[in-house]
Structures are given as structure tokens and as C-alpha cells.
């Protein structure tokens, strides 16, 4: 059987499938559940400095064939409350990555110190939520901003930092390079694509917030293109996110240059059992294609394979 363990951002993952932030990861028990179902690691909901209720409903719309449109508004209990949930997941043995969001480099740094103190194996910076005023894309939209935030965080914590990059940009690789310069141990790409749907009978947007973020199978080619472009420019590991639903999807990301993938929307559609199916399916697929280890397949779709085979 092919070897599924991967080393990513200095973290040893038992398999490359991570629970994506914001999906199923709100309580310690749900994080532990995804771990027990076979995830290689679990990423928490993005946590801020203070509790936020999020936007009024409707906050999410399901499109069966191609994904979800959401504008949750980053609801979360805040960093004072959340460490107890991380503790529950860690006690269950889970490899936990803590996601944080802030409105400035200073706020990110303060949150990162609090998050690092919980014992998470890595911290993912949400620099990419497309629909939260003052957060996400609004402070991670340019290379200068990304570098400033990542540097402020890496100066105060030794926990590996993963910068989560937006696809709502002209040049995702420039954002990833900025994260690398700032000291990030890895980049993850992508967060949701800014999107909207209109209810023609009500003559208004479907979501209460209007603009939202699109996720699921529809965005997989976009995520793949971002990972492809980023892999060609940066030396740090890349984590692929967006529309992973099958083992083939995961292997596409890996061949484009990802060392691990995050799974979000498909957990909503299939439940956490998806992690066991993905893990077994990827192992079979790698065997069939003659790869002994996941790491042997990283980046092999690029014309110059020198980066991928190390
Ligand atoms: C309902 C919902 C909530 C999300 N919340 C967060 C969040 O708190 N932080 C974050 O970084 N990404 C968040 N995301 C984005 C996902 O982590 C992921 O980047 C995106 O959905 C693409 O992956 P997928 O197609 O597998 O869902 C959220 C996505 C959805 C659908």
C-alpha cells in the first residue's frame, strides 16, 4: 500500500487530508469526530479576538451539483473561549491546526500568541475570507499586506504558520511569495471565490449579506490553477483547497504541487465519513499509478519536475 504520511510545514501528517476551516470544526467534539473518521489533521473555525455572532440568516445556500454559496460573517466564540474546544480535540489525539483572523497585523500577532499557547501544531492565517468587512481579503489582498501580517506573526510565535491565500487576486503566486518572505512555513490556497446569487422573485440577493463566497466542485479548477502557479514560484509547501470531493481531485492537487489538501464542502455533502473514503481511495489510486508515496507525486504534472521530486 502506498505511503500516505506527509511532512508539511514541519508537521508530520498521517495522511494528506485536512478538515478545512469553518466546516464541521466549531466544537472540540466535531474536530475530534473528523479526526476519528480518518482526517490527517483538523483545522479549527477561524477564531477572532472577541465573540462574533456572524451575519443574519440566510447565510448559506446549497447548489447540489456544484457547491455552496456562504456569507457566515465569521461567527466564532472568540479566543478567550475557544482554547477549551481545542483541548477536547487534542485529548482525542487529533492533530489540530488553529485558524485565526484579525483586522490588523498587530491583532493577528496577539491572536497567534494565544493560539500557539493552546498547543496546536500549526496556525493558519485567514487572509482570504471574501465577505467580512475589515478582515480576510481586505487585509490580505496585496503582497505588502500579506508579508506584513505574516512577519508580525512569525516574529512572536515559533509554531509553523500557514498563510491562506485568496483566489480573488490577479497574481496568487505574488501573495504566496510575500508569505514566504514573511516567514510562513507553508501557504494554503484557496479560500472561497467572491460570488453572489439573486432571487429573481424577491428581487434581491439570496444571502442576507448579498455577496458571499463560492466553494465546492465548481471552484476546483480555480484552486488547482492557484496551486499550480504558486508551486512554480515558492519553495515552502503548498496546501491545496477547493472542491476536493474524490481521491482523483486530491491527486490532481498533489500533482499540481500540493503536499496536503483541505476538504470542506464535501464534508457538508457526505459527512465526515468522506475522510475514510478519500484516504483509502487515494492509497489505491497511488498503487494503481505506481507511486510508492504521496510525496513522490508532488508536483509531477509540471514540465520541470526538479521541484516536485525532492
Ligand atoms: C460555510 C463555510 C464556512 C467557512 N469558514 C471559513 C473560516 O472560518 N475560515 C477560513 O479560512 N475559511 C473558511 N471557509 C473556506 C473553506 O475553508 C475552504 O477554503 C473553501 O470552502 C474551499 O474548499 P471546499 O471547496 O473544499 O469547501 C468556509 C467555507 C464554508 C463553505
What does this structure look like?
- The mean pLDDT is 95.
- 34% of the residues lie in helices and 19% in strands.
- Helix 3 runs parallel beside helix 5 (143-154).
- The strands form 4 sheets. An 8-stranded parallel barrel has the order 3-4-7-8-9-10-15-16, surrounded by 8 helices. Strands 5-6-14-11 form a 4-stranded antiparallel beta sheet, with no helix packed on it. A two-stranded antiparallel ribbon has the order 1-2.
- The protein contains 11 helices and 16 strands.
- It has a single domain, classed as Alpha-Beta Barrel (TIM Barrel), CATH 3.20.20.70.
- The chain is α/β, with parallel strands linked by helices and 310 residues long.
- A hairpin with a 2-residue loop joins strand 1 and strand 2 (11-13).
- Spans of 5+ residues with little confidence (pLDDT < 50)? none
Global mean pLDDT: 95
Main beta sheet: 8 strands, parallel, barrel
CATH class annotation: Alpha Beta
* CATH architecture heading: Alpha-Beta Barrel
- Domain count: 1
What are the key terms here?
alpha/beta; TIM Barrel; eight-stranded parallel β-barrel; 34% helix; binds flavin mononucleotide
Offer a quick outline of the entry:
This protein is of the alpha/beta class and 310 residues long. It contains eleven helices and 16 strands.
Amino acid at each position: 500500500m502506498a505511503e500516505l504520511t506527509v511532512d508539511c510545514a514541519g508537521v508530520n501528517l498521517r495522511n494528506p487530508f485536512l478538515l478545512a476551516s469553518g466546516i464541521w470544526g466549531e466544537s472540540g467534539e466535531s474536530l475530534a469526530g473528523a479526526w476519528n473518521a480518518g482526517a490527517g489533521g483538523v483545522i479549527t473555525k477561524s477564531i477572532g479576538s472577541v465573540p462574533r455572532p456572524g451575519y443574519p440568516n440566510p447565510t448559506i445556500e446549497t447548489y447540489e451539483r456544484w457547491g455552496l454559496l456562504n456569507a457566515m460573517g465569521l461567527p466564532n466564540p472568540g479566543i478567550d473561549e475557544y482554547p477549551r474546544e481545542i483541548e477536547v480535540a487534542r485529548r482525542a489525539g487529533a492533530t489540530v491546526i488553529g485558524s485565526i483572523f484579525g483586522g490588523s497585523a498587530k491583532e493577528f500577532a496577539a491572536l497567534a500568541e494565544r493560539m500557539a499557547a493552546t498547543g496546536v501544531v500549526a496556525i493558519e492565517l485567514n487572509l482570504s475570507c471574501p465577505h467580512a468587512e475589515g478582515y480576510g481579503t481586505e487585509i490580505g489582498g496585496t503582497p505588502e499586506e500579506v508579508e506584513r501580517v505574516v512577519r508580525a506573526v512569525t516574529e512572536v510565535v515559533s509554531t509553523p504558520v500557514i498563510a491562506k491565500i485568496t483566489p480573488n487576486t490577479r497574481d496568487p503566486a505574488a501573495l504566496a511569495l510575500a508569505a514566504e518572505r514573511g516567514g510562513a512555513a507553508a501557504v494554503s490556497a484557496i479560500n472561497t471565490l467572491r460570488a453572489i446569487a439573486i432571487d429573481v422573485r424577491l428581487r434581491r440577493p439570496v444571502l442576507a449579506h448579498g455577496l458571499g463566497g463560492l466553494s465546492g466542485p465548481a471552484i476546483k479548477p480555480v484552486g488547482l490553477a492557484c496551486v499550480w502557479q504558486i508551486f512554480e514560484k515558492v519553495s515552502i509547501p503548498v496546501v491545496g483547497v477547493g472542491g476536493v470531493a474524490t481521491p482523483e481531485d486530491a491527486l490532481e492537487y498533489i500533482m499540481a504541487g500540493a503536499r496536503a489538501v483541505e476538504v470542506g464542502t464535501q464534508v457538508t455533502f457526505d459527512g465526515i465519513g468522506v475522510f475514510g473514503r478519500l484516504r483509502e481511495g487515494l492509497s489505491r489510486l497511488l498503487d494503481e499509478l505506481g507511486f510508492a508515496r504521496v510525496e513522490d507525486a508532488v508536483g509531477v504534472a509540471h514540465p520541470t519536475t526538479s521541484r516536485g521530486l525532492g
